[in-house]
Design brief:
Blueprint lengths: L11 H38 L8 H33 L3 H11 L5 H13 L2 H6 L4
Organism: Pseudoxanthomonas suwonensis (strain 11-1)
Protein name: Transmembrane protein
Keywords: Membrane, Transmembrane, Transmembrane helix
Length: 134
């Protein structure tokens, strides 16, 4: 990476914000993963106890398909947030981090706080310069 011009050197606060955002991304990714997998485990255990495994009924199959899509989307968001945290730590892929922050705003309330905070920090000119942008 090219060195950042002296006029565009980030402040100590901005560097601390980036470090805090990296940690927050990993924490929120873990919370999203747990909140995605725990209900699925309960549902599977409940279906086995009720003798409904596998359920030949169409409504049961539709329920499983919808649940599988929700789990896939949750795990996809988990991966997106974790990779964005990694990219922030390496100061790479600025636009990817911006898009991930915008998408994490959909996960109310933690994702919204994380996404807005990340967008605020990443739009600063000195922080953009760290990524080799602008």
């Amino acid at each position: 990476m090219d060195s950042v011009p002296a006029a565009m050197e980030p402040t100590a606060d901005e560097l601390r914000y980036l470090k805090a955002l990296v940690i927050a991304h990993y924490v929120v990714a873990a919370v999203v993963a747990l909140s995605t997998l725990v209900p699925a485990a309960h549902m599977v255990a409940g279906m086995r106890d009720a003798g409904m495994w596998p359920d030949p009924d169409l409504s049961g199959a539709m329920f499983l398909v919808v649940l599988a899509l929700i789990i896939a989307m949750g795990l996809g968001m988990t991966g997106l947030i974790a990779v964005a945290g990694y990219c922030l730590s390496r100061r790479r892929k600025h636009m990817f981090c911006m898009v991930a922050a915008a998408l994490s705003c959909l996960l109310v309330p933690l994702g919204t706080v994380l996404g807005v905070s990340t967008l605020v920090v990443l739009t600063r000119p000195r922080v953009r310069a760290l990524f080799g942008e602008g």
